[in-house]
Amino acid sequence: MLEALIFDVDGTLADTEAAHRAAFNDAFAEVRLGWHWDDAIYIRLLQVSGGKERIAHYWRMVEPDVAGGKAAQAAIEQVHAIKTRIYESRVSGGQLALRPGVLRLLREAQASGLRLAIATTTTPANIEALLRTTLGPDWKRHFAAIGDASTAPRKKPDPLVYQQVLTTLGLPASACLAFEDSANGLRAATAAGLQTVVTPTVHTADHRFDDALLVLPHLGDVDQLLPCGVAAMEQRWVTVEALRRWHAGTTLFESD
Length: 256
Ligand code: XBP
Ligand code: MG
Prior knowledge:
InterPro entries: CbbY-like (IPR044999), HAD-like_sf (IPR036412), HAD-SF_hydro_IA (IPR006439), HAD_sf (IPR023214), PGP-like_dom2 (IPR023198)
Largest sheet: 6 strands, parallel
Helix content: 40-55%
Distance between the termini: 19 Å
Keywords: Hydrolase
Low-confidence stretches: 228-235
Order of helices and strands: EHHHHHEHEHEHEEH
Strand content: 5-15%
Mean pLDDT: 91
GO molecular function: hydrolase activity
Radius of gyration: 19 Å
EC number: 3.1.3.-
Protein name: Phosphorylated carbohydrates phosphatase
Shape: globular
CATH topology of the largest domain: Rossmann fold
CATH architecture of the largest domain: 3-Layer(aba) Sandwich
Bound molecules: xylulose-1,5-bisphosphate, magnesium ion
CATH class of the largest domain: Alpha Beta
Number of strands: 6
């Protein structure tokens, strides 16, 4: 029986990675690091979850002899704090919208008695900046559990953040569905025992999603995703009813 939906943030609730990349580059410029992550580099760096971990990974690539020391770790913390400030100021200005279908599904899920949760590797400040503008200042009341970089030091694909959320919900993984956009996120959710609906973005389109319950272009209109042979589909949304069927293992469009 489906009882809760657990959402990743970056790339799933909203397509945020272009804004993150711009904030990283502005932070590098502010401290005169001379680094610039173009889209191609960033798509590769997104294999590393967590902004601090991503900076450390890049630094080891470009200056292996400098990147390891204590001073480097302090510098990474400083640069990441600047990046988070820049990202927060950008996003809290309403720059980013939720992805197609997300708001409708959140509302429908709550109206259907499902509980909602968040499991992300980003920081509480970034979640606040995004959801305050998109769901309102009281956004937290919609979520029964929130796992993030402040609760789970081990980042995805480690399942820790999903395990923490399941514990807070007091539910087995079998009573929940996870929503993700990336291979690391899918691996984390799968390792926590969760069935996962994946909605890739341009940043994760080439990732492998073999263990996904379903891969959809987004959570809105599903008529584009259907395998051939299902003709004349009127417009359908990813509804709670559809999710309950997918979760139970019956096909979405089985005759009623
Ligand atoms: C995606 C990430 C984050 C963001 C950057 O998080 O891996 O690191 O790219 O945010 P999600 P930070 O699990 O929500 O997909 O710089 O705050 O890490
Ligand atoms: Mg994500």
